[in-house]
């Protein structure tokens, strides 16, 4: 059982978490943020030795614990773990091979972002929080089939290019990041942005933020992300709900 950490300086708590604990923290917090389409959704977390931590296909992100994690090699083969790796891991293998700088890759079907994926449109940015991940969002509208097919995975990787966010048309989202912390900010912000844009649309539309303002806010996040408390606060909330998540 894990005690709820003190609200210490930002970054101190996250620095105490092992890589498996960080992945579980990401999955739990993002499930709360809306990445909750049953057992769908997969995360890979590259380790210094070239292996990957992966969430198993059998469990929802809400019930994931450290003891449930799988370890796989660069070919997508399980090295250790008591569960199974999703066949859709092909997408991650192609991503990590094509962009070696990527440490975390995740794919899911979050509620509001998937609504926008169905429209093949990027949700407008109307507020400060929606701007934190920047305005660049790839739209992969040529999706045809399932992401475990190599051709679809390669096309999706080409579509995202050097960006860290993509909507897969009529399917879901793709997020890539240089750390677990970055992955949380990009993924949670996209879902917030998508929800807020839908809410504004119900009023007949609104006035989006200027690109220059969005760029300024995103640049601030990039420069100061380790000073922002949102992720650690979200982890503390998950520990309050389930003190055993790091078991």
Automatic annotation (TrEMBL):
State any GO BP term from the record. Answer: pentose catabolic process
Q: Name one GO cellular component term.
A: cytosol
A Pfam family this protein belongs to? Aldolase_II
**Example GO molecular function:** metal ion binding
UniProt keyword list? Lyase, Metal-binding
Domain Class II aldolase/adducin N-terminal, by residue range, is 21-198
Report what the protein is called.
Unannotated protein
Instruction: Recall the taxonomic lineage recorded for the source organism.
Output: unclassified sequences, metagenomes, ecological metagenomes
